[in-house]
Amino acid sequence: MSVFRAVNSGLHREGLDWFFAVVSTTGLGWFPTLVPFLFLVRKETRHYTLPLVLTVIVSGIILADGVKSLIQRDRPSNLPGAYVQEQVFHSSFPSGHTTTSFGFAMMLTLLAWNSRYRWIIASASFAWALLVGLSRIYRGVHWPTDVIGGACFGVAGACLVSLCLPKLGRHREDN
């Protein structure tokens, strides 16, 4: 509860509300669903599309929504004392936004691992995923453990997709 309050109330600044609203929006919905299709533009990155789309489906829909249906947990937004910026009433664990963003970040990292840009891609994608997770606590709709669980499910989802697509690295760029 103290970590939740430190982020939700302690970090609260009116100027950050819009920032975390935008970051939160990128974690679920249009962003992780449409961005993989941008990789179709360049021949060198076309092979990123299928693994990223599958990762969004496996991590965000199958894992996150599947676990949410099994674990009924109240959201902090349903309890008194939270600074709430979204009204969400269904189960809290795991954070779907965090699951999807960490799955996406992990798959981008796996896809780019043999490229010269691997550290930039890994750092940027995981920084974004961390901000998405933080935004869910900041906005008052998830507990820190929901975000930690979502990060674990997202990474697991990407690894599962990677194991199921054995030719994932076939087109990777050399160092």
Describe the structure.
The chain is mainly α. It has a domain at 14-66 and 93-136 and 145-164. The chain has helices at 2-10, 14-26, 30-38, 49-70, 96-112, 118-138, 144-164. Helix 3 (30-38) packs antiparallel against helix 4 (49-70) and helix 4 packs across helix 7 (144-164). It is globular and about 50 Å long. The termini are far apart.
Write a concise keyword list for the protein shown above:
175 residues, mainly alpha, 7 helices, 64% helix, globular, disordered C terminus
Task: Please give the structural blueprint.
Elements: H1 2-10, H2 14-26, H3 30-38, H4 49-70, H5 96-112, H6 118-138, H7 144-164
Helix pairs in contact: 2-6, 3-4, 4-5, 4-7, 5-6, 5-7, 6-7
The span between the termini is 45 Å
As a whole number of angstroms, the C-alpha radius of gyration is 17 Å
* Strand content range: under 5%
What low-confidence regions span 5 or more consecutive residues with pLDDT below 50?
169-175
Helix content range of the residues, please?
55-70%
Number of helices: 7
**General shape:** globular
Mean pLDDT: 84
Give a summary of the structure in a few sentences.
With 175 residues, the protein is an all-alpha fold. The protein has helices spanning 2-10, 14-26, 30-38, 49-70, 96-112, 118-138, 144-164.
